[in-house]
Design brief:
Distance between the termini: 51 Å
CATH superfamily of the largest domain: Cation efflux protein transmembrane domain
Largest sheet: 3 strands, mixed
Low-confidence stretches: none
Oligomer: single chain
Mean pLDDT: 82
Number of domains: 2
Helix content: 55-70%
Number of strands: 3
Radius of gyration: 27 Å
Strand content: 5-15%
Shape: elongated
Length: 326
């Protein structure tokens, strides 16, 4: 079993156990706010189940119908999770509105607080671990699932505070107020996950990944990589697909160009944390490149080297050689 599937299985099993604990707390207390927390746990379990399948699918090798692999399913998984969270938040707000007009009497609050506190600690710990591992292996699904568990832990913490206030003040309407607040918080986090998944499915540029690629480009930079431009990065699951133009001396033979592009691919794959597939277009240098070209003993140099141009996310993503962007 892969690392991703082991991690999501941990999330799924944790979600099932904690969901049962929260519903026990709800039946003990008859608290609308605890029902809010328990309802979100149903979403955790359903979302983790779908995430488990999506990770299995994303790990399948490329085929004729999916030449870039199946990694995009992770964005769809996050979309489903975000959608479920959004629906859960809506249901919670509707129920809170109903109980505002038809309140119910709370009981066994201390026992409910104890059970919810246990679930909050476990959710936060597992969520923190999943987010850390998800970022390390670049799995959006694992990271989103960890974020969801942490959101659940924060909402449980707010719930505990509210239940203590109910005990102290004997004001039952606080239960409904907490439910409204937590429902709105859950709704907002569902929206954020939906937004993130849609941006991935639409191949929206991820500035963080672009910055990381540019940093590795500068670390691995060779003198005959005269410039890099028209850089585009796409994310498919935990893999990156990058295409760009690399300017090389125009007197290189086809074999030399091939060797330099192979070095480019190897060095960047070695530095980047994700498996990366490169599609590199080789451009010949022009006389206008000479003032920032560091190739020594160049037989066709038309002017002396003056200044190295630093590669940044701004100039490497433009579709032009660097002398045109000065």
């Amino acid at each position: 079993m892969s690392r991703q599937r082991r991690l999501i299985l941990l999330s799924l099993l944790t979600g099932i156990v904690l969901m049962l604990v929260k519903f026990i707390a709800y039946f003990l207390t008859d608290s609308n706010a605890i029902f809010t927390d328990a309802a979100e746990s149903i979403v955790n379990v359903i979302a983790s189940s779908f995430a488990f399948y999506s990770i299995y699918l994303s790990s399948q090798p490329k085929d004729e119908n999916h030449p870039y692999g199946h990694g995009k399913v992770e964005f769809f998984s996050v979309f489903v999770e975000g959608g479920l969270i959004f629906i859960a938040g809506s249901i919670i707000l509707i129920k809170a509105g109903y109980n505002f007009f038809f309140p119910n009497e709370l009981q066994n609050i201390s026992e409910g607080i104890g059970l919810i506190a246990i679930t909050a600690v476990i959710n936060f710990a597992v969520g923190f671990y999943l987010m850390k591992r998800g970022k390390a292996i670049r799995s959006l699904t694992i990271e989103a699932d960890g974020k969801h568990l942490q959101v659940d832990a924060y909402s449980s913490l707010g719930l505990i505070v509210g239940l203590y206030l109910i005990q102290l003040t004997k004001l039952p309407w606080i239960d409904i107020l907490i439910s409204f607040i937590l429902g709105s918080f859950i709704l907002y986090n569902g929206y954020k996950l939906l937004r993130k998944s849609i941006s991935g499915l639409m191949d929206e540029s991820d500035l963080g990944i672009v910055e990381e690629v540019v940093e590795e480009l500068n670390k691995a930079r060779k003198k005959d990589w005269i410039d890099v431009h028209n850089l585009r990065v796409q994310r498919y699951g935990n893999e990156l697909h990058i295409d760009c133009h690399v300017t090389l001396p125009n007197y290189y033979t086809l074999t030399e160009v091939h060797d330099r592009i192979s070095d480019f691919d190897h060095l960047l794959n070695k530095g980047l944390q994700s498996p990366t597939e490169f599609f590199v277009h080789a451009d010949p240098c022009l006389p206008e490149c000479c003032h920032y070209c560091k190739v020594e003993a160049c037989p066709i140099r038309s002017e002396a080297f003056r200044k190295e141009i630093e590669w940044t996310s701004e100039n490497v993503t433009r579709n032009m050689k660097h002398f045109r962007s000065q």
